[in-house]
Design brief:
Length: 90
C-alpha cells in the first residue's frame, strides 16, 4: 500500500470518527481493524488540542462537504441496497 493511500485512509478515518460514524461502517468502508479505529479515537480524545483543531478546520472546509456527500452516497449504495444495482453515479 502506498503512503498516499495510507494517509488518505487515516484522514478519512479521523473525519469519520469526528462525524460519529459507527464502528462497523468505518471498518467496512476503509478496511481497517477495530483496534485501528480505537487507537485513533483515543488520540482524538487525549492528544494535543492543535491536532483536534486542525481536524475541525478540515471538517468545516467546503470541499470536505462535497467529499462527505460522495462518501454517504457510496455507503448507502454499498450497505443498504441489494446486490444487483445500476452503476453508482457520483
Amino acid at each position: 500500500m502506498t503512503e498516499r493511500i495510507r494517509l488518505a485512509k487515516r484522514l478519512a478515518l479521523v473525519l469519520m470518527i469526528v462525524r460519529k460514524y459507527e464502528l462497523f461502517i468505518i471498518t467496512r468502508l476503509l478496511n481497517v481493524s477495530n483496534s485501528t479505529v480505537y487507537v485513533m479515537q483515543q488520540k482524538l480524545n487525549f492528544e494535543n488540542k492543535a491536532f483536534k483543531k486542525g481536524v475541525e478546520e478540515l471538517r468545516q472546509h467546503q470541499r470536505m462537504e462535497i467529499f462527505w456527500r460522495k462518501v454517504n452516497k457510496i455507503i448507502e449504495y454499498n450497505i443498504f441496497k441489494p446486490s444487483i444495482r445500476p452503476p453508482l453515479n457520483l
